[in-house]
Amino acid sequence: MTLWTSADAVAATNGKTTCDWVVTGVSIDTRTIQVGDLFVALTDVRDGHDFVAMALEKGAAAALVSRRPEGLPEDAPLLIVPDVLVALEQLGAAARARTNARVIGITGSVGKTSTKEMMRSVLEMQGKTHASIASYNNHWGVPLTLARMPADTEYAIIEIGMSNPGEIAPLAKLAKPHVAMITTVAPAHLEAFNDLAGITAEKASIMDGLETGGIAVLNGDIDTASVLRDHLGDTTPIWFGHADGNDWKIKDVRITPDATVIQTHGAGEDYLFKLAVPGRHFAMNAVGVLAAVQALGADPVRAALDIFQWLPPAGRGTREVLVIDGGIDDGTIDLIDDAFNANPTSMAASLEVLSAVQPIDDIGRIGKGRRVAVLGDMLELGADEVATHRDLSRNEHLQKVDVVHCAGPRMKHLWDALPDNQRGMWRETAEELAALANKMIDAGDVVLVKGSKGSKVSLVVDAIRKLGHRHAL
């Protein structure tokens, strides 16, 4: 299906095209480019202009450039603009303007991507849905997501992130959501902000982009909820959470080894529904999703039924069984891959999940199945990072963990604070710890790997997977 014609793209960007063309997608990466895509030659870590020829060889129908790369034939299909990023934003704005889709923008310190995927899974059952891929939520990810949006989209889900002050509002104004959702506010990116109130104010600025009559779906349980209230202006809020006074009130959450059962009341109805994974933090996000579905004008009752189909994205709480000893019955481990992001809030939630899963005894070398945590540094926590890591030793769910392995200089403070019977291995880097994967696990174990993406603790996940045969749980 045609996404952009050269004429439409010229009208959106005021650029100049070398010929007529039609594209069916938009890409910034030659590694994943599809035949028929428009290749956008962004300049970031590397200059995308160096890859235009490769993109065209792989089947790109045209390239968005600010200059003609050397060596291209004269008839190469190009859209030439003064600034490629600005032109991408213009394409995004034009795509947003031409659709009648109901649009939601999602931000938050924790749970943006998981919530976006939950939202996608339920809205896809109610209409044609377009959403950000992966974590494309920054200054180029948001306009790229918009530029990829088909004109006949019915629901659009735009994830919006930030690392520094002033980043969210411009992206929200580009997306122009009808609904803005804030999953939660937690101590993340504190190095760029004075305090939690500053982070909350930045998250609240997603409301600056709301369409007239827009609705804000907000976490009513956070300590800085008053900052969100102060930012509302004429915006209608829908609050969700455990506390009394929330419009969508969570009445009960029950964590089992394989599921989360949730009771909530919202929009005049009582709901009892289930997620196919354990996690109190997932329960909070799920109730926020139902509130947002209501705000979008879709059906929250149907969403409550369909949300059971959702599973976490890779690296965000994904569970799988690995066969590590094929010579014995049940020679497996249960691996929880949560290696993409970490802050104190999400760390506590992941440890609760680990504590709820039962290991299997009498099948491994040790004879007793264990709960094993492999923890990497939590980054960007500011001045309190040492105490924040050390104080994890007092977490109630960590008390149920048998062995804790740590990677990174920050996690050394936790490792030092652990009692001898819990203290596993510590290494300066995740790469060093990954080399010892075979010494960390045994058949029957339940293993959580958790850390900030920058800690590279995902290397441990990869090393553990290589020890066995992977089966989705």
Describe the protein.
- By secondary structure, the chain is of the alpha/beta class.
- The chain has three domains: 4-82, MurE/MurF, N-terminal domain (Udp-n-acetylmuramoylalanyl-d-glutamate--2,6- Diaminopimelate Ligase, Chain: A, domain 1, 3-Layer(aba) Sandwich); 99-309, Mur-like, catalytic domain (UDP-N-acetylmuramoyl-L-alanine:D-glutamate ligase, 3-Layer(aba) Sandwich), CATH 3.40.1190; 318-472, Alpha-Beta Complex (Protein-Tyrosine Phosphatase, Chain A), CATH 3.90.190.
- Helix content is 29%, strand content 23%.
- It is built from 16 helices and 23 strands.
- The protein has helices at residues 6-13, 52-57, 84-98, 112-123, 141-147, 168-175, 196-204, 225-231, 280-296, 300-306, 344-356, 385-390, 411-417, 430-434, 437-440, 458-465, and strands at 4-5, 16-17, 22-23, 25-27, 37-40, 62-65, 78-80, 102-107, 129-131, 155-159, 179-182, 215-219, 236-241, 248-255, 260-266, 269-275, 318-323, 332-338, 371-376, 403-407, 423-427, 446-450, 469-472.
- The strands form four sheets. It has a nine-stranded mixed beta sheet, with helices on both faces.
- Helix 9 (280-296) runs antiparallel to helix 10 (300-306).
- The longest helix is centred in the middle third of the chain and has 17 residues, at 280-296.
- It starts with a strand and ends with a strand.
- The mean pLDDT is 93.
- One of its GO terms (cellular component) is cytoplasm.
- Its main location: cytoplasm.
- InterPro entries: Mur-like_cat_sf, Mur_ligase_C, Mur_ligase_C_dom_sf, Mur_ligase_cen, Mur_ligase_N, MurCDEF_CellWall_CoF430Synth, MurE/MurF_N, UDP-N-AcMur_synth.
- Residues 332-452 form the Mur ligase C-terminal domain.
- Its EC number is 6.3.2.10.
